[in-house]
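The methods section describes the discrete structure representation at length, but only in general terms. What matters is that the chain and its backbone geometry are given together, residue for residue. Nothing conveys this as quickly as seeing an actual entry. For illustration, here is how one protein appears when written out as sequence plus structure tokens:
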Amino acid sequence: MGKILTGKPVVPGSAEGAALVSSEPLSFWGGISPLTGEVIDRRHGLSGAIVTGKVFVLPTGKGSSTSSAVLLESIRTGAAPAAIINLRVDPILALGSIVADELYGQTIPIVVLPEKDFFSIKQDDYLVIKPDGKILVNAK
């Protein structure tokens, strides 16, 4: 059995999947393809990686408010991450998930973790997100 982390659910929900970990922020607008889930920002360390079905662990989004629309569209097309874990509340990403719930009845959980817990998650750890913000971590 792995460890249990306790975070703050920004957008509550349940999800699970392998962790895709980024040490740097990423703008969804111009950074992620809403059709394929590929990280298309060629200057980002995860360039070419696929977020679809993964628990995307990144400090925060960055940049444009259009990131909400890109996350919304990726949820609609099925290319979105299973969940997002951040270091601080990102209202732009939260908005995309909340609007997806309103428009499509689909959402992805977004959880904020304290720094120590956030940085304890490693690439490909298997994460189970609970609606109360608890995250079960099983190392790969």
